[in-house]
Amino acid sequence: MEGLDIYRPWKVDEYIREIRELLEKEEYVTLSFFIESLPIPILHEVLVRLSNEERIKLFANVSLQPIAEILTKVSEDILYEIVTVKGIDEFSKAILKLPFNEIADIISKLPPRIKNRTIGLLPTDVRSEVLKLLKYPPESVGGVMTIQVPVFNCNIKVGDAISMYITKDKLGLYDRHHNIYVVDDEHKLIGCIEVRLFLTKPKDLLLKQIVRKPCAVIEVHKDREEAVKLAIDYDLIEVPVVDSEGRFLGIVALDDILDIMSSEFSEDLLKHGGIIETIKGSYIAVDPFKLALKRSPMIILLYIMNAITGSIVASFENLIARAAILAAFLPMLADNSGNIASQSSSLTLKSMILGEIRVSLSDFMKVLLKEMSVSTLMNIILAPFSFLISFIITMIAMGDINLAIRIAIVVLIALVISSYIADIVGSILPIILAKIKLDPAIVSSPLVTTIADIVTAFSYFSIALILLELY
């Protein structure tokens, strides 16, 4: 166990082997020291990669107190394992040293019966603060808010505030923070000041004389993503949180902002890949049955939608029988329109997330006109390739120049029409969904690709039927 003073994520497998050896030899004292020495991110990775039996044996022989911080990181399944092995009493004691917002986060992951018993075992003062946080939805600002931050009345002198601040900070009553917050007699936020500046101000001044008005505040019931946007727009390390009347409640701290960004990015990425329900925890640790259940709904929907494409192709059976070469170009056209739809939906979603596109009629029209222009330019670029490729393939296969020209024209027109439709659908569908209060991220790449397939198949064979005059 020498040389573990520097930890590297790529050495996780070595740490796992070490833990397995200690478990096998039943050297639990050494195991406890080893576990305590691991940084929280590494310990989390190790726990995820251990088997259920190994984790249960580890939790049964290692105290929770030194590693309580890991409880905020683990999945619901692992948390349930810990509570089952250690018991609710020991579990409740282990989380007491954590900030109130982290205690609330941990308790919110527990099953209802265990959650209620855990809350009941907390000291009265802690329980009161935790219950205040648990009343907010997890996706709201209140659900990620930190309340253990320094707050002082505006009429207090700087010297007195510094004394109180130092005393409380030594007692560990504050969570990580960057600013001191100042409120009036009604607890409405007046302003804030960085801690380093606060400690150097003349001690005979009143706090209201040294604070600055915050650049931005956020209401406690807003979606937590809005707090991230404010932090990015105003370069904030922490975002003050107020109620509907402007009373100060807490902050969204930098570590929470980063966690939200990571969580929302993962969630949107999964949705854009066609997985509507969020997969919590590490992919390595997720049960295959749960994974299949979460992935199946979109797969079933897409399968049914693909049946529409199949029925469209089948309805043109006579046309395909007379000019079978038409079938050769359908995959190429369908893939092209699917790629265009995926690109346009990704660009629109990115712009909506960054606030570049608002859900308004003016922005809707701007997006529509821009994508029409883009489609026109792309079609000008693609058209010669489309005509030439389809002409050459038909000539090689059929040896009829007149037929090759007509097929090439059909493919070219179908390409243009399907490209326009796919681009427009992919770009405006996220805006429409946001307008009707649905998450625009559900416009997944597989979904828009399938829609594009349907449009392409119908337009392609309809154009062929008209231009080739084959009935």
UniProtKB/TrEMBL annotation:
Q: Which SMART domains match?
A: CBS, MgtE_N
* UniProt-listed PROSITE patterns: CBS
- Indicate the transmembrane segments per the record: 300-330, 377-397, 409-433, 445-468
Source superkingdom: Archaea
- Name any GO cellular component annotation: plasma membrane
Protein's UniProt keywords contain Translocase: no
CDD domains with a match to the protein in the record: CBS_pair_Mg_transporter
Q: Which GO terms describe its molecular function?
A: magnesium ion transmembrane transporter activity; metal ion binding
The record's principal subcellular location, in a coarse class, is membrane
Q: How does it sit in the membrane?
A: Multi-pass membrane protein
Instruction: State the protein's purpose.
Output: Acts as a magnesium transporter.
**Protein name per the record:** Magnesium transporter MgtE
Q: Which organism is it from?
A: Thermoproteota archaeon
Q: What is the lineage of its organism?
A: Archaea, Thermoproteota
